[in-house]
């Protein structure tokens, strides 16, 4: 009996040891790309934030890497400090603390974007959108697939039946726009902002001339919650969970370490899959790419949806991929620093102009592999093979001040944290910026693509 108790206690300690993680702020003394070497040497470390100009990063470090990673930092003339220790305990204070609220009968009510909705709340809201007299004429719901845990992937289509003014337009089909959020489970803000954008299009369709013009030329498709399994897990078990929840070859026989479950959906898309570092082949890595391209039902569902146009019958022309955080406007390619998409200069000019006009120049615009880091199997690279306008918007907060968390080496803000933990009060602030940017972007396309052909 005593032996069994000792064995059980050992097992509990061993389990906690495997699952414990610490969040480290790391700063090196000179600029250098350390990421590829860190990934090869410490494949299970999760990069939360990276600022090349400041030679600094924030990492989620597994317990069994702590000593060796500290040595690595010291050998490269860097220093580190622990921002949060024993993540599973410390992060409890950052777990969801939902205020009580009663859903409105109006599907466009602001309460639907003032909270981080659960999956069930999201589905109920979709049902309200589809059945309310305020919105049902403009809404179609499409279930494009199901997750490993049998949650539906629901795309909301905003459509309109505006009469065409020109004969040329009568003969021309509308184009389609795809917006998604929640690809990484811990990036709750991207889900909230996607919902905000959806509500704004529906709210302003009657009295905003630019929105009316956009809906005459585009059908808008919004997948707010691409990774509902991972998202629900981040709400109940691990706030910084990133992947989905499908089993891997390791988790099938080794279920002690939770990190060995799941695939990083934004490393699983079929274009340039596993072609460069930044996409791990280790099942226990937070950036695990999966066993093969489009191995995950979430990715395969989106790939099929964009390729086949089953529900839209119109060509997809623009893709806006919402993530958090850093305030970056990222353009393909992510897999290469040597190559650029054919229309890169046009994308860069257009995005810079809009970021300057509606975002007060607070977003950095450029190729994803330069502004952040190279990685492969991403959604914007895949989408760029299908349509001319493909981009990622990394939401708030900005990297300035984070991950620094201090003004000088002597002044440290011990309350600083990582940007994934932004609260619901940020949804409307970021959502307004992103919605205005999308409207300006699509309107600029209309000026180039449609109106120029009618003159």
UniProtKB/TrEMBL annotation:
Residues 1-20 form the signal peptide. Residues 115-445 form the Peptidase M14 domain. The active site is at 394 (proton donor/acceptor). Keywords: Carboxypeptidase, Hydrolase, Metal-binding, Metalloprotease, Protease, Signal, Zinc. GO terms for molecular function: metallocarboxypeptidase activity; zinc ion binding. One of its GO terms (cellular component) is extracellular space. Belongs to the peptidase M14 family. This is Peptidase M14 domain-containing protein. It comes from Rotaria sordida.
């Amino acid at each position: 009996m005593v032996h069994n108790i000792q064995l059980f206690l050992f097992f509990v300690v061993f389990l906690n040891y495997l699952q414990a993680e610490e969040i480290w702020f790391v700063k090196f003394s000179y600029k250098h790309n350390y990421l590829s070497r860190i990934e090869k040497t410490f494949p299970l470390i999760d990069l939360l934030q990276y600022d090349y100009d400041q030679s600094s990063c924030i990492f989620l470090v597994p317990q069994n890497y702590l000593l060796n990673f500290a040595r690595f930092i010291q050998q490269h003339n860097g220093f580190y400090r622990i921002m949060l220790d024993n993540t599973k305990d410390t992060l409890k204070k950052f777990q969801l603390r939902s205020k009580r609220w009663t859903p409105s009968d109006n599907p466009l009510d602001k309460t639907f974007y003032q909270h981080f909705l659960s999956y069930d709340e999201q589905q109920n809201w979709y049902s309200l959108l589809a059945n309310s007299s305020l919105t049902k004429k403009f809404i179609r719901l499409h279930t494009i697939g199901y997750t490993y845990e049998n949650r539906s992937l629901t795309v909301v289509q905003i459509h309109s039946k505006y009469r065409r003014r020109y004969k040329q337009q009568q003969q021309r089909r509308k184009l389609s726009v795809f917006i998604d959020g929640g690809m990484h489970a811990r990036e709750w803000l991207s889900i909230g902002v996607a919902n905000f954008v959806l509500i704004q299009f529906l709210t302003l369709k009657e009295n905003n001339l630019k929105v009316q013009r956009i809906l005459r030329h585009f059908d808008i498709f919004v997948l707010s919650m691409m990774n509902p399994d991972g998202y629900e897990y981040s709400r109940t078990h691990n706030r910084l969970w990133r992947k989905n929840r499908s089993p891997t070859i390791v988790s099938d026989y080794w279920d002690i370490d939770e990190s060995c479950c799941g695939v990083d959906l934004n490393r699983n898309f079929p274009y340039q899959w596993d072609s460069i570092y930044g996409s791990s082949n280790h099942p226990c890595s937070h950036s695990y790419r999966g066993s093969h391209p489009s191995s995950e039902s979430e990715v395969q569902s989106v790939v099929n949806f964009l390729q086949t146009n089953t529900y839209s019958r119109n060509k997809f022309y623009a893709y806006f991929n919402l993530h958090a955080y850093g305030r970056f406007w990222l353009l393909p390619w992510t897999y290469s620093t040597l190559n650029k998409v054919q229309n890169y200069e046009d994308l860069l000019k257009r995005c810079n102009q809009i970021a300057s006009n509606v975002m007060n120049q607070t977003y950095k615009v450029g190729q994803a592999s330069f502004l952040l880091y190279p990685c492969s199997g991403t959604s914007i690279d895949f989408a760029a093979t299908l349509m001319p306008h493909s981009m990622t918007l990394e939401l708030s907060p900005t990297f300035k001040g984070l991950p620094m968390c201090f003004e000088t080496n002597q002044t440290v803000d011990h309350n600083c944290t990582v940007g994934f933990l932004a609260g619901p009060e940020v949804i409307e602030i970021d959502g307004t910026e992103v919605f205005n940017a999308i409207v300006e972007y699509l309107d600029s396309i209309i000026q180039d693509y449609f109106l120029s052909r009618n003159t």
